[in-house]
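Annual report, structural modelling task.

Input specification for the flavin mononucleotide complex:
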Amino acid sequence: MPHLLHIDSSIQGEASVSRTLTARAAQAWKAANPDGTVTYRDLAADPLPLLTGEQNYARFLPVEQYTPAQVEARALTQQLADEILAADTVILGLPLYNYNAPATVKTWVDHLVFPGVTTDPATSEGLLGGRKFQVIATRGGGYGEGTPRHGWDHASPWLVQVLSTLGIEADVIAVELTLAGIVPAMEPLKPLAAESLAAGHRDIDAVFGEPVAASA
Ligand SMILES: Cc1cc2nc3c(=O)[nH]c(=O)nc-3n(C[C@H](O)[C@H](O)[C@H](O)COP(=O)(O)O)c2cc1C
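The model returned the following structure:
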């Protein structure tokens, strides 16, 4: 049975653009997979605990020597890995906060990277490949080539790179200039922002299918 893992991380609740976009993709996925099932993880509403040094050290110890905290941490890693392994498709909303990923996404990755669980300890090969992994990124500003802050977006490039170590080939759809309607100085950028949003919708629909009309 098809299975979707839908992950959100925006702290902005109903004002979040990434949540709206991941919901659009997930809704289209459900319409295309009526017998499919969904796991939803909200990293903002239900943040994972920061990885501690003791927990991290479990990566270098035989299981028989684990402390209770290390047993717990490995179980969490296994759960996060299993959520991905159970899914044919993963959709992850990735807002840009202070030129980087939300801390909750960083923590999710810190738990996920674990030789023996998500990588092969002998070869370092990633073990989470073989599924569609769609990142939907949102940025308040614009970071395209030729813009003053080109290269300042460290969220999407980092996430794609670190996921590749786990065998995941992530694709990114990005919507930029989401602050144009909010920050007065960005008023002239509103048309570009609308273009970016429309392009994001088109890209999502091309991957997941047209949005489903609301029933009367
Ligand atoms: C804490 C915080 C930090 C932010 N930092 C940046 C930033 O560094 N660069 C940027 O372009 N936008 C920044 N923004 C704006 C967000 O990228 C923008 O609101 C985007 O839509 C976030 O996705 P979301 O709407 O799903 O939360 C920031 C927003 C917040 C809440």
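Residues 190-208 form the longest helix (19 residues).
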